[in-house]
C-alpha cells in the first residue's frame, strides 16, 4: 500500500481516499510508527499528512528520521512537508506570515515532475503558520507564494517531494493532479486498484477463511450490512444465511425492499424474523427516550440470538456448523477506534441495534479497509439496487425514536405515511445528494387545532428535520426550497388524516442532535 502517515489532523483520511481515487490502495499509519514498523507493512510510497502543530512546539508530532532512509518515494503535505524539510536539513521558520484559505501559488520553472503541466499560476488551499525558509540540499524549489518562498519542493534523484498547501481538498485547483503526478509519474505506481479488484481479492480471502463452514449475517437494511452480506454471498453462496429482524419500527416499504429487491438482486438466502409484536409489547407505555433505546437494543439481541440458536442447531445437525459472523465494519471505524491513528479519537458509537459482543463466532469483516463511497461503489458493482446502496442513514431503533411519546401501531402507521411522502418529494426534487438525512418526527403527545372542510380538527403536528452533514458529528439544517416544503406540507396534511400541521426544525447540531430522541 501507499502509507499515509497521520500527524493528527483531520486530513489523513481524506488523503487516503484521494490516493484510492487515483487507483492506488492506501492505508493510514500513526506518526509514532517506527521505521521498522513502516517497512514491515511493505509500502510502495509514503505521504506525510498535515497536522495541527508547529514543528517547534513542545511534544510536536515527529517521524522516526530513519523512515527517510527506507528509500521510499515520499510526498510531504503541509505539516508533513515541514517535517520533511526539517529532518533532511532544511530550515523551517516562523516568520509571522500566515496563510489561511485560498492563496495564489506560482510555479518555479516548469514545476518539475510534481507540478509539471499545470498553469503557471494557480489557486491552492493553505493553512499554516510556520513555513519552509530554505529547502534541504539537493532539493529544487517548485512553487512559491507571496508569503512563502518555498511552497513546494522536490528531489527527483531520491523521489522526495513536498507541498505546503493541501492538494487533498477540493479548493486546491489542481490538487488531485499533484497527488496523481506523485503516485503515477514520480513513484511509478499503476492505477490498478478499483472496486473490481477489491471484490476479487475479498472473494478469495473469504473463501480461504471460511472453507466449508457456514456463516451468519445480520441484515439491517442499511448500506454496510447489505454490501458486506452480498460480498460474502458472492464468495460462498448458500453457506451464508442472512437474518433480518423486523422490529416493526421500519419505514414504509423497507422490509419489502430487503425481502424482494435485495434478495432478487443478490440471491442471498434470507430468514426474516417477525418480531413486531414482541417489540411493541415491550414498548407499551414507555415514553422515555433512553428507556426506549434500551428496550429496542435488548429485544434486538434477544430476537437475533433466538434465531441464531435455531440456525446453529440446524446446521450442526446437518454436519456443517456455523462458525462465522459477518460484520459491516468500515475503515473510518477502524481508524477512529485507534486501529490506524496515533491520536485515538474514539467516537461514541451508537450501539443500539448492534449485535451482542460475546457471540461465539469468528468475525468476517470484508469492508474493514474501505471508505463509505467505496462500499457504495462495490454495492453497485454487486448489483444491489440503488435505493439500498444510496440510502441515507437510519437509526437502529428506527421509528421508535421518532415518535415523541408512546410507540403504538397506529402512531407508527401515521408516521410511516408522512415519512414516505417527505422522502418521495425530496427525491423528486433532486435533493437526495444535498441532504444527509431528513428525519420526520411525530409529536404524538401534542395536539393542535385545525380546520378541514367545514370542521374543526384536533390532530398531531409532525416535524421535518432535514440536515446537511459530513459525518453526523455536526450538522446544519438544510435550507430546503420553499416550494418543496409547501408540497410536502400539502401532501402530508391532505393524505395523512391525523396530521393537521407540518413544522420545520431549524436547529443546527450542536446544540440539537439530529434525532429528537
Ligand atoms: P444524533 O441524533 O446523535 O444522530 O445527532 C447522529 C447520527 O446517528 C444516527 N443514530 C443512530 N444510528 N443507532 C444507529 O445505528 C442508533 O441508536 C442511533 N441514534 C442515532 C442518526 O440517525 C444520525 O445519523
Written overview of the protein:
The chain has 517 residues and is of the alpha/beta class. It folds into three domains: 2-186, Class I glutamine amidotransferase (GATase) domain (Rossmann fold, 3-Layer(aba) Sandwich); 195-389, HUPs (Rossmann fold, 3-Layer(aba) Sandwich), CATH 3.40.50.620; 402-504, GMP Synthetase, Chain A, domain 3, CATH 3.30.300.10. It is built from 15 helices and 22 strands. The strands form five sheets. It has a nine-stranded mixed beta sheet with strand order 2-1-3-4-11-10-9-6-7. The chain has a five-stranded parallel beta sheet with strand order 14-13-12-15-16, sandwiched between helices. Strand 10 (152-155) and strand 11 (160-163) form a beta hairpin. Helix 6 crosses helix 7. The longest helix is centred in the middle third of the chain and has 29 residues, at 289-317. The two termini are 42 Å apart. Mean pLDDT is 93; it is low at 340-353. The structure holds xanthosine-5'-monophosphate. Xanthosine-5'-monophosphate binds next to loops.
Helix and strand arrangement:
Layout: E1 2-6, H1 12-21, E2 26-30, H2 35-40, E3 45-48, E4 74-77, H3 79-87, E5 91-93, E6 99-107, H4 112-115, E7 121-128, E8 131-134, E9 140-144, E10 152-155, E11 160-163, H5 175-186, H6 195-210, E12 214-219, H7 223-236, E13 240-246, H8 254-266, E14 270-274, H9 276-283, H10 289-317, E15 322-326, H11 331-339, E16 362-364, H12 372-381, H13 386-389, H14 409-428, E17 440-442, E18 448-452, E19 455-464, E20 467-468, E21 476-477, H15 482-495, E22 499-504
Parallel strand pairs: 1-2, 1-3, 3-4, 4-11, 12-13, 12-15, 13-14, 15-16, 19-22
Antiparallel strand pairs: 5-8, 6-7, 6-9, 9-10, 10-11, 17-19, 18-19, 20-21
Helix pairs in contact: 6-7, 6-12, 7-12, 9-10, 14-15
Bound molecules: xanthosine-5'-monophosphate.
Xanthosine-5'-monophosphate binds at residues 350, 352-353, 393, 395-397, 437, 472, 509, 513-515.
